[in-house]
């Protein structure tokens, strides 16, 4: 089944570049520069129509670099940047970002914050209000521990479109299903919460086969339906030993969708969530 793809989740970086701190040498498979030409080469045998470029560094300099790198590249359909939501000038910074070409969302790196309920702090309210005013989306980089807090956050901000990155990173390494599954189903019931089918291979142990992800993929499809979108998490995907085409094949095999549902997963959902206005 050949389908045009909008990849909802890719990264670019240059080692030692503006704001760069990760990956380091402990991640040898991805410890090099990754730029638009590398993505084109990785996806050369696929029907990639475009991608959403997502921040990988919690630094304003990285967001500015991404914008300069990708603003004129037709492969990048949208950019999800980073901003310090708790900064005194967060509202002004977010308004500036929202006015930039292709900037469609922001992603605070919640998985790296020890306080699981950090996103619920009242001090962040002006930043969230600025995101809504600027028409931005919220990428939630979370782990299962965050699911209750994100449910509260989604209820508090019903006009903020939220997408869960990497299926909230279930503990696939241990084949642990609950309480992740219950929390995901509860989140999916919120109309403003969507999800990315991405990043699951890097949650497995090195010797685990992709087939063991089947329960997680099935649950995400059942829970989110038309609100589930394909993402590669390239080039982090390479850390799991997969190529770009490998992950596409895994998703096709595990999802087992009919043509219409597959078109929604691989193209339509990301297009609609991020407002990319692409035609299939």
Please explain how this structure is put together.
This protein has 280 residues and is α/β, with parallel strands linked by helices. The chain has one domain: TIM Barrel (Alpha-Beta Barrel), CATH 3.20.20. The protein has nine helices and eight strands. The protein has helices at residues 36-42, 60-70, 90-98, 125-133, 147-156, 180-188, 214-224, 244-255, 259-274, and strands at residues 5-10, 48-54, 76-81, 103-106, 137-140, 162-164, 193-197, 228-230. An eight-stranded parallel β-sheet has the order 1-2-3-4-5-6-7-8. α6 runs parallel beside α7. It is globular and about 45 Å long. The two termini are 15 Å apart. The model has no long low-confidence stretch (mean pLDDT 96). Residues 6-276 form the Amidohydrolase-related domain. This is Amidohydrolase-related domain-containing protein. Belongs to the metallo-dependent hydrolases superfamily.
Task: Give a nutshell description of this structure.
This protein is of the alpha/beta class and 280 residues long. 34% of the residues lie in helices and 14% in strands.
On the 0-100 scale, what is the average pLDDT? 96
- The domain count comes to 1
Number-wise, the strands total 8
CATH hierarchy: architecture: Alpha-Beta Barrel
Gross morphology: globular
What is Rg? 17 Å
Q: Kindly state the percentage of residues in helix.
A: 25-40%
Report low-confidence residues grouped into runs of 5 or more.
Answer: none
């Amino acid at each position: 089944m050949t389908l045009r793809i909008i990849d909802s989740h890719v990264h670019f970086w240059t080692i030692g570049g503006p704001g760069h701190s990760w990956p380091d040498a402990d991640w040898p498979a991805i410890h090099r520069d990754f730029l638009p030409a590398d993505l084109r080469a990785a996806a050369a045998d696929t029907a990639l129509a475009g991608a959403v470029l997502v921040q990988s560094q919690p630094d304003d300099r990285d967001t500015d670099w991404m914008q300069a790198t990708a603003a004129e590249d037709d492969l990048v359909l949208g950019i999800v940047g980073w901003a310090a939501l708790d900064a005194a000038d967060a509202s002004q910074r977010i308004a500036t970002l929202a006015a930039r070409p292709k900037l469609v969302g922001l992603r605070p790196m919640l998985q790296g914050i020890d306080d699981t309920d950090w996103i619920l702090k009242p001090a962040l309210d002006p930043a969230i209000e600025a995101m809504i005013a600027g028409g931005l989306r919220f990428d939630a980089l979370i782990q299962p521990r965050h699911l209750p807090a994100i449910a509260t956050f989604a209820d508090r901000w019903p006009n903020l479109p939220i997408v869960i990155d990497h299926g909230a990173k279930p503990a696939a390494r241990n084949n642990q299903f609950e309480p992740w599954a219950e929390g995901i189903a509860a989140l999916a019931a919120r109309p403003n919460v969507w999800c990315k089918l991405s990043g699951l291979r890097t949650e497995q142990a090195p010797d685990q086969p992709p087939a063991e992800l089947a329960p997680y993929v099935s649950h995400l499809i059942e829970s989110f339906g038309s609100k589930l979108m394909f993402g590669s998490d390239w080039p982090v995907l390479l850390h799991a030993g997969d190529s770009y085409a490998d992950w596409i094949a895994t998703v096709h095999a595990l999802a087992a969708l009919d043509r219409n549902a597959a078109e929604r997963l691989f193209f339509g959902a990301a297009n609609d969530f991020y407002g990319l206005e692409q035609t299939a």
